[in-house]
Amino acid sequence: MTIEELEQIAKTVQLENSRYDYEVNVCMDLACASQGAGLLRDALSRLAEASGKKVLIRKTGCMGPCSSGPLVRVDPDDTLYAKVKETNAEAIINSLGEKPVAELQCDLNEHFDKQVRVVLENAGHIDPEKIDDYISRDGYKALLTALTEMTPNGVVHRITESGLRGRGGGGYPTGLKWGTVAKASGDVKYVVCNGDEGDPGAFMDRSVMEGDPHRVIEGMAIAAYAVGASKGFIYVRAEYPVAVARLTTALREARRRGLLGSGICNTTFNFDIEIRLGAGAFVCGEETALLASIEGRRGTPKPRPPYPAVSGLWGKPTLINNVETYANIAPIVRNGGKWFFNMGSERSKGTKVFALTGRIKNTGLIEVPLGIKLWEIIDVIGGGVPGGHKLKAIQTGGPSGGCIPADMMSLGVSYDALMAAGSIMGSGGMIVMDDTSCMVNVARFFVEFCMTESCGKCIPCRAGTAQMYTLLTRICDGTGTMDDLELLIELCDTVRETSLCGLGQTAPNPVLSTLKYFKNEYLEHIMHKRCPAGVCSMAGAPAAQTAAAEVLA
Amino acid sequence: MSSKLKLATAWLDGCSGCHMSFLDMDERLLELAELVDVVYSPVVDTKDFPDNVDIALVEGAVASVDDEKKIRKIRAHSRMLIAMGDCAITGNVPSMRNPIGPDAILDRAYFENATIQPQIPCVVVPKLLKTVKPIHEFVKVDVFLPGCPPSADTFHTALTALITGEPLDIPALTRFGA
Amino acid sequence: MTEAPFDVKTLEIDGRELSARRGQTILEVARENDINIPTLCNMEGLSNVGACRLCLVEIKGSNKLLPACVATVSEGMVVSTNTERLQKHRRNILELLFAERNHVCSVCVSNGHCELQSMAQDQGLTHVRMPYRNPHLPVDASHERFTVDHNRCILCTRCVRVCGEIEGAHVWDVMGRGIDSMVITDLHEDWGKSTCTRCGKCVQVCPTGALFDKSKIGSDHPKYPDFLPYLNLMREAR
To answer: How far is the C-alpha of A394 from the C-alpha of A417, rounded, in Å?
Structure first.
């Protein structure tokens, strides 16, 4: 494979596509598929054929605004239809060449205008099961450029120059990590992709793996070239069967095209990727636990140092990055580090994909330049809080993150700003809460998550999260005391400072951040036995307690 | 009116071993009697817990509704509350029923092992709480004296220090299970 | 430039200037110099897992606490092993252990010989503020010589490591996750029906009364884990 051959493939695809007058893209991501997108696509294909019009019906990955699904986009007019049912198929096919179907058209201009799509540039435009679709949109060009025109050092330099930081949560500078692995001594090195996305409400990585799998593979191959690895692993949770299937297909096609394997593109570079399935343990998103799991051992973290960059898989230097990080690589190599560096805020460059969920009109996947204000995400892209309710807080970063109150919506989204506000960027979950959410209960939910997902290796995380859960339950039940609150705060401090890995170290964040901004809600529960949001039952409160049975009948 | 401190000792769910160990102070009890009046205790014939107690030593865990009432009353009328021994501090042996619950215990005691008239007593015998808990789960405790039981020397050193206001290093004297 | 075979580092622990070999852990250096750092999962002769978090120490210039059992020394390092902050965390961790399962010292075979018990005393623990969890846990007495009482297990995994690393049998391992974790024999078989070699090493390294010898009566059950470094030494000499 050479650049010329790639271009030839792209031309062939374009030629093929030009035979059609219209392209009807149907989103087949989980949210749309579960609302009948499959039947819709079948109906569209059937009717298109019957109509005699030259229509290409294409199934694509996630288009973004899941709450408006099933979504259909008609090109070349770029008309987006929302909440399309199987019965609407006829109207859509009939409208081709005529006026768009007005009642299905959705006004999501504002939703899309504020977004900048780098990671999701192909989402909704390509069939994820066709490598040629990917190639037709500059796919694998970056890999070939890197292999034929750049030194490994040059690639590392370009990534460093871009200012890209790890998208899995930690925000470690990617270029620095690559440089460390590249410099590490040893002839066997590994490249690992962390696709063990487990935060409640987060599905960024799933969408990328399902909607544009080759982007991840290309990013990994470039990384392997840069650090000198010849073997890669994609660690995907088994709960993502579609992602696994798409990746498997993508790997097979990439091998067939000579983009993976030995002597890639007539160079001396060898690289191949294996998929490893996670068995559903959240802690396996932690890098040392993930590596243990790939090695076939129990998925528990190890103390660092040594870092995986020095001693990772089977003791060899290992580069481990998140799905979204790899998805950023090809565009950076293609467009240059400066191009990426110019997007985003001062210390957080580029764009970030967020999974917007909760009490908000437009839920789904969004990609925004870093530095964007929270209110722009909530009010403009998200369309605000529905049902006349008032925004209360935004939870970012999953169970490791925290809650940011409504009066801090002018905060710019960046690694450092979120950290300073007591939350974290995390992998990109963003849960919007309104006045019907009890913040104590929210904290308890996340602590329960961490308790059940703790691996059990270190004491503070194993027993500490369980005790935090007990104390929070007391407060939610109305049996909590000020002593309990004091103990809870002390426990948060110990769990945060002494836990072995990130799971435990960040598990108190939901409690600490809600205590910081919503302490009055805790005090209401404890002093007045009242849940301001009306969520907690307060069943154990003293008045009820005497009647009920702490005492045996 | 005596100017001596008023000392009370009470017995919740425990084996009375802490009281025995307390009595093991032997002749040192006479020294102690110079400093305190024992106003309430299993070894004193007073029915009701008096007001204005200076030091209350409590043995045993809180296992029944009766225990809970008692410990709240003791706390309300005492200046300094000392949790005496492991049962009061950790739940110890009485709390070993917690994992299986009181029903199983009552069944074993009053049904499975009863040869005549198997029944769970409900008059005079106080109702059991679902879980046996240390006393600090109910009231504020000022001093913890662990041990099963704390030794007579521990009692002597600790009480002397507490009465005279001298510094007291409890972990140097005793431990859980001592 | 070639590296000297014994690259000496100098560092400061609790105000004392000390020297150490490159690659030594902070814990090793501290012990060589009679500085006590509390540990539960660590055991001389076994690999380190850094799980109990009791050996965390403060390093000047870093806000992060490091486990002394795995953190290696570096030149000019200034280590504090017993600050107020560390003492508070250690007491909290011990409280968590006591509240996690059903530790009843007074009736335990290890009363008086238990590392958890004596560490609580060393760290000045007189009571546990955290609510006791009182889990319902099994006792497996199916083995002809030994018993495992899960009520007393603190999941230090010394038994797992000694069985895998020293005896080479790998009968013990950990099952479940988080608060439900348990040590098990084979694939959760009864110990008596497992592939146990009956060497008894796990019993000797167990810091509490979780693993004990049936022939011991009352609380007369001191344990002798000192065989481990000796055994390793003899094996290396061969």
So the answer is: 14
